[in-house]
Specification:
Blueprint: E1 2-6, E2 17-22, H1 27-36, E3 41-47, H2 50-62, E4 66-71, H3 77-90, E5 95-98, H4 115-143, E6 146-151, H5 164-184, E7 189-196, H6 202-205, H7 217-229, E8 234-237, H8 241-250, H9 253-262
Parallel strand pairs: 2-3, 2-5, 3-4, 5-6, 6-7, 7-8
Antiparallel strand pairs: 1-4
Helix pairs in contact: 1-2, 1-7, 3-4, 4-5
Length: 270
Amino acid sequence: MVWKRTTTGDGRLNTRKNILITGASAGIGAALAQQYANASTRLILVARNQQRLENIAKSCEKSGSDVICISLDITDTNVVQSTISQIDDNYPIDLIICNAGTTNSIGKNGEAETWDDICRIIDTNLYGVLASLNPLISRMQQRQQGQIGIVSSLGAYRGMPITPSYCASKAAIKSYGEALRGWLAEDNIDVSVICPGFVESNLSAQFHGDKPMMISTDKAASLIIKGLNKNTANISFPFPLNLGMWFLAVLPAGIANWLMKQFSYGATRK
């Protein structure tokens, strides 16, 4: 783990809004950091790639934000929990966005995912989120304030045969976030589940199927921030792709699987 703290030195360190973003070195996480960067925020940026994290931090500092960089593996859940607890001791977190994630798919000839790949997906997309939030929930309850954003996926609505483990992990955190919102509302803690479609990123580049209505990371970050500001329960985009995934979820399985195969999301054989 590498912990680097930078400060603008403007004397307002104690009045800033503390925002923690995981997976902040690239993609949606990096775009969120840059759009949240201003003189009234302190950004705690978490990711594995130290160099990319430092580059994002420098960009955010130019916008006036105070930045703390933490390089760690989100799957090292004990370290994640102890590190976030230590951060919160010094800078009580106002908003956490659990964005770190990875993906995988079946083979081009329908081969099963390897066990190592399945574990990597679940450890990152599910346990990484749970470990990031677990030390903060009771603290936010004690403070009677806080906000949580959990990045799931439109793939959480209906499992796609091409990416079974990924869809399972994203469905799990979608359900978890929905449960948190109902549980923590009386503690004045806002919880939003974020379900993006295809976003221009390394994650989408690994997806072998068609990528309709793909949007930029900047556009995705803007939609997420807008939804979080409104305390929207489910921030899903882009329209109408989200409508299509909702529709698939209520269709009979045979019809849904046939439709997904037409859009290259089914289990095809070469």
